[in-house]
Amino acid sequence: MTRTTQSFLCSVVLMAAAVAAQAQVFKPATIRFEGAPDYSDAELMQATGLKIGVGYSSDELNSHAQRLMDTGMFDKVGYKFDTKGMLFTLHEVTPTYPIVLENLPLPTGEKLEEALREMVPLYHGRVPSEGGVLEGVRQALVQMLAAEGADVPVQSGTVGEVATQTVTAFKFSIPGVSVRVGSYALQGVTPELETKMVEAAKRGNFSYETGKTEQRMEEYFQNLLVNQGYATATVHVTRNGVLAVSEGNIKVPVQVVVNAGRAYTLGTVTLAAGGPVTQAEVEKAVGPQKLGESPWLRLPRFQGRCVTMLHARGYQDAVVQREVHLDEAGGVANFTLTETPGPQYHLAIVRFENVSDDLRHKLMAQWKMLPGDPFDPGYVGEFMAAMRTNDPVLRPLLEHLKATYDAKADPVTHDVTLRIVMEMQ
Length: 425
Hints:
α7 (279-286) crosses α8 (298-312). It is built from 11 helices and 18 strands. β14 and β15 (332-340) form a beta hairpin. It is α/β, with parallel strands linked by helices. 30% of the residues lie in helices and 29% in strands. It folds into 5 domains: 4-92, membrane protein fhac (Ubiquitin-like (UB roll), Roll); 97-173, Ubiquitin-like (UB roll); 179-259, membrane protein fhac (Ubiquitin-like (UB roll), Roll), CATH 3.10.20; 265-340, Ubiquitin-like (UB roll), CATH 3.10.20.310; 346-424, membrane protein fhac (Ubiquitin-like (UB roll)). The two termini are 47 Å apart.
């Protein structure tokens, strides 16, 4: 990207026409800016480093104009003198990009934006693909983490593909460091629930994703409590305390505030009509309650089976939401589950790679999910397991091979290209 700085010095009263231009001193009475309406004159003045009433040589003015160029927010900067003073003419660079934090244990939203705007001149929520604003945001994030007790590097990268000009954002991450949730401060729970939640937290072993982990934990613990019979339980998770930093890892402390409410008896679990999966199909898949099991296990099993069956039918983006209906007098919670299937994905082509032609032909002869069929990701593992254990011809050929697969879907047609790569193990 080519950027230019232009200077237009005119209508300047000189004491001696013979004085060389580089020896002239210009003392602007006013400094104005046009072409960048999103920025105030005060912000732009701060970015240039110029001051009203101070004398500058032409070289110094060019240097201050270059400071605007170096921010990366402009691809052309010009200036001139007129009867009112000094006027900068700016042309903003396009496109600019929002920022995304990947694993930085920092506040997000308006609090982060306010801090960055204070620390990085000309940052207004977006960054250029290069230049001082992009670097300034990175350095500001380093300083914020250091203030939290984490003296770690931060790297920037793109979301999307630069080569195809499909960059959608710039992301910032801590490289080479494990960032996970560490200690849990639990509030509002009985000793019995505290034990269960601590055990559940260990099983969760949450990695830290900026702006996402707290919500994910809230859903995780709320589901845990509902499945214990606390059908109206609410959970609120926030950062709490100082980061625990040691070589190679950062532990993020959180506070978990619980309002469990009363315990209920599980009543009915009903799947709303109209979805691809029916109540009878899920009932059959779940089966009867086992002796000694909690009746509340039926709820997560029913919901999980429904999601699995939707995925098997090609609805890879499917979600199943539940709504509770309470009988307070009887202490009973009844649930209605609603399917939101989303688009149906279909297999376009399947390829077995890194294998001999003979083995490829043998595998394809047994493969049953054909082009045009709904794409079932679970079928890949089931197929390979069956070939390893049940097929007398393929079993010895696959004994020392492991399979990994990559499924890429067209975002418009939702047709899936499936690559199954075989490697020695």
